[in-house]
């Protein structure tokens, strides 16, 4: 092995070592456990009183959040026939790094106490939500970035995602407990802008349905991922919503949205594709879209039929987006969206923000009752009118899109540096699971001969 190949092989593990050592040092200096019996301080606009003070309330829901982040998103990016098992492996790595970095960055803004970062179950929940935004972005980039680039993307996106969340929730007092804006919209459009900067004309020319594996393994990935979303996502959303009866609204609305979105997929899929029933991956996409649209509106909807209508419409819009809008993104805007995050997270997140704004206008003491103080504390206290709150909810959407697109452009420009694209060459030659799996009927040795950065997959 040449010296260059040896150095290239050690690049990726060396970066992992340096980042982990840095994180350990930062934790040693600043991070401490929360005082006993205290959930840890956070800014008043976050309305910490809404969180249950009983650790038995939060810990099971933290488990649900962590499970759905790891398994649901991890299995989502494993459906491509052109990707090896390294896809899910790198997702776990990105999750592990992002959680640590998010605890530090968010702790500086939300959980700082006497110059130290106070860590508890709530801080880990918020770190998981931030990590979910990073994993959404990876869905748009799958196939065009290597692990080194993914680590740097996570480093930058966690920072910008936390900044966006702090501006919206703390400074503006926006209610977005399920993350329609802070998680789904930000993660989707951040990833799409990075993908635009890393556009490769010779890649991803096949249609999305041709990229999906038709074999048993991918069907198993999709069905398991969908089941985990059905089981854990509604409960995980409740970790950041108001407690007691109000929490049940978010859970129930999420389930109603989910079932209606799934049915809409069965209605529209036979009309758009030459198949009698939708593929399992399409059902998983409908599940994701239903959850994204309920992020902001989940604890505001007053009736179950409203959640059914929202889920049904977002299921139709998501399916139509895959059929008609995704080709436009690729051909006209030069944006390659490997996993279709624009249709499963981006558009549903935007629709969820608009729905949340509309429902905010209906939030009065008569309609919300005691819930008004829990969902919109500043309105209940009289320091803000409901119209002002609705305008802030609406204004949060363009602000999130602005920060996501600008952050994505900066990150994409940095990831285009040649040294980042060519670093782990030997790693991929020696670990077939981390590189592209040759397509059926193609030359098995072809992927190893392509230029790195084009054939390397995460």
Write structural notes for this entry:
This protein has about 450 residues and is mainly α. It is built from 19 helices and 3 strands. A 3-stranded mixed β-sheet has the order 1-3-2.
Annotation keywords:
3 strands, 458 residues, three-stranded mixed beta sheet, mainly alpha
Oligomer: single chain
Question: What is the average of the pLDDT values?
Answer: 78
Termini distance? 25 Å
Beta-strand content:
under 5%
Ranges where pLDDT stays below 50 over 5 or more residues in a row are 36-57, 204-217, 423-458
User: DSSP helix count?
Assistant: 19
Pattern of helices and strands? HEHHEEHHHHHHHHHHHHHHHH
Number of strands: 3
Radius of gyration over C-alpha positions, nearest whole angstrom? 22 Å
Biggest pleated sheet? 3 strands, mixed
Main-sheet strand order equals 1-3-2
The coarse overall form would be globular
Overall helicity: 55-70%
Would you tell me the structural class of the helices and strands? mainly alpha
